[in-house]
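Minutes, methods subgroup
Present: GH (chair), OT, SY

1. OT presented the first of two proteins processed in the latest run. Sequence and structure tokens recorded below as shown on screen.
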Amino acid sequence: MSLTDSSPAQIAKAASVASRNLATLPSADRNNALTAIHQSLLQAKESILEANARDLNLASKAAEDGQLSQSVLKRLDLGRPGKWDDMLQGILDVRDLEDPREHLLRMVHPSYEGSDQTYSGLTESTEPQQDGLTLKTLLDDGLVLERITCPIGVLLIIFEARPEVIANIAALAIKSGNAAILKGMLSSRGKESTASFHAISSAISSALTTTAVPNAAIQLVTTRDVIASLLECDNHIDLVIPRGSNELVRYVKASTRIPVLGHADGLCHIYIHPDAEPDSCVRILLDSKLSYPAACNSVETLLIHQEALRSHLPAIVSALLEKGCSIRCDDTSKHSLLTSLPRDKSALLQDAVEEDYDTEFLSPILAIKTVIAPANAPEDVAVSLAVAHINAHSSHHTDAILTSSASLAQRFQASVDSACVFWNTSTRMADGMRFGFGTEVGISTNKIHARGPVGLEGLCIYKYAVSGNGQVAADYGGSVGKKWKHERLPMD
């Protein structure tokens, strides 16, 4: 890894060249690089956290002056319980994943025996491993088509505040065979790289000098004011991944011809049906809203069936209020809570406005809206009403239903147009590490290529390899031409 102040064009070209070498580097070499990165970060923990503490001190003053949001401040903090350990463990988890490009490597290295690493999440599967070969077709005798998994090429990651992104991206890029250009900022308002970024990058750079990974395969850009120029390098950069505020993501999407993978908002919903288990609802709401309110997978709106207002809502709201959460209610839910909560708690309730249902709060605030179905209507009508609200207001990130009915849950999951649709679990489960991907480059709400938490699979594409022995297209077709066989072959 290099910390570079070269011009954007030079950075992009160097990454492009390095990506071709990294794409065919054997698994063992890339796995060794991830082991070295993990060890180097572990040894540099004290200096990295000291740098992060300095960043937090400056960021706290900026937040007090209104120059930074509290959500950015929280994302910057590497000392938050579990964050450092999760970052390091994610590197090892990615290292131990199955290489998605095994077949490609066998083509380059005929004696290649494959990776000895196995993905623990698939060890009990009876499905054969295809080693990156996803299609094999006999077009005609001696003419075979194969579809082979391969890296995308060069990734540009523009991120705000999250220093752990550097380790996450480096691990996933190296494992998947992609080169990565990283540009970090403290915020989209012009605050540039922090001491944390440099400390982590220096540790990774030191580690990679002892490995076979090309130095330019992972670059942290230290030059100021280069984002616009990097976004113009569509001849060398293949995919842009913005990690940060809505402002940043929208700016990137509007400023480049390069494909963009990401999401602008994390406006997540939970719908509670009357048959949901009450105690479970309390636990799930507390986790979804308050375990990390600044996260993009934190719930922002609670939809609750009118028949669950008295049976479920008081316990949920009481628990949230005790933890310091602000509750914004529609008229129906507030009226019910005023008659069921003690006066000291009901006095804390606030009135929701329509804008609240389109707001990603990123803080301990929850908007509540009642789902009112017609009298004697089938119970799936309420689910349809909840789905309609979600599809109209959601950012298509993560939405959940709490119910004991499998049929209603399946209807909800099939109908909600979001990257992640959950049943009886927290929206905070939308995470690459929790999905078993090792880590993630981000969560995508796109509907092409990759959706949801993006791990190794989302950083790969495919190519078609056709092997023949002199066939030409003119041999086929018409009344006298040869006929295609198009027989699906086993992928072994």
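2. SY then presented the second protein from the same run.
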Amino acid sequence: MTDSVPQSNGTGPPNGSASSLSGLPAPDTQAEAQAISAGTNNHAASEQKVTHCITEEIALYDRQIRLWGVKAQEKLRTASVLLIGMRALANETIKNLVLAGIGSMTLLDDQSVTEDDLGSQFFVSEQHVGLNRASAALPQVKALNPRVTLQADEENILLKPPDFYALFDMIVATDLDFATLKTVNAACRIANKPFYGAGTHGLYGFIFADLIDHTYVIEREKSNVPTEIKAETATRSVIAASTRKEQGKITELVTKRELYSPVILANTSPLSPDHLSSRRRKLQVTPLLTCLRALWEFQSISGRLVPSTSHADLELFTTLATEKHKELQLPPETLRSDFLRSFLQNLGSEIAPVTAFLGGQLAQDAINVLGHREQPIQNFLLFDGEEFKGPVYALHPIFPPLDEPLT
């Protein structure tokens, strides 16, 4: 078999000559040749610029890349997050995500900056009072990391259509009332997007996660006992396992799957059998869970965010808390009057150490989820700043077997 002979097109050098080796068409004039040469040089310069940018990013994020790896950092760099609400907890969460190198973030809040915001938020100052919270904070957030693409949205989240949520890889909602929280959560489920809801009340706070159906990888030292592909809990199962050998050390990579429930179901779900299996474990359950459920029920009944100091409101809240405590099958003595009083006194306030702690926890979990690594929150984290404890409860609806088959 012989090679084909390059043929001339009659207007320039033969096909396959030096001018077309790079895949560029043969120039008809010297001007075209110069233009092509300039274009080739520009392309090479562009590639050098991209390589330089990547090298700069690796240097910038070196410490965290050592922590969670290049692949996770790349997923973070291309991720888009919607953050709803711009109070102190949101400030802390935004700070951590932006400094970590999130790709893009939209800050959404339809409220204006008030003087009360100045005592707890570090992205706004006196000059911003009266301006929209999201727009006012945007320049200060941008200054943290100019590489992050940022946008402010001043519209009420309840006015957004369902397809709005499909634009993002993750939605984080902070300090919303329960009605709005469950509405946003439902919209995220329709769009099949992972959702976090979080809030603080003074010394107390929570993080709720609904990741729908999430898979992640845990890296650990290879054990002599083989990893079984099986269900570990009602919501968690091992779906794959492999090994990797580096520098003589064998690391096992275990892929797990977690199933989640929306907040509207988690809020009425019982504690797991592990917590209800003994009185000792029941005594260890924080009454914050009871009070949070009572607060959300109060919002539903009264249409107001927090109880006032009136006798009627305090009586209603106490009654609701007693009912919720009983529904959770917890010992009556763990719902102490001093805890109820402390919780009510903290409602509506913001304390910097608490928002800093929860904002760090929320951002770290979000980063792990975007990178599909490590065990995520499943599904309620409750923080008590007085005890400095943050237990996590897996709250999912349990359907008892039917006594009789359906006909």
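Chair's summary of item 2: The radius of gyration is 28 Å.
Next meeting: continue with the remaining queue.
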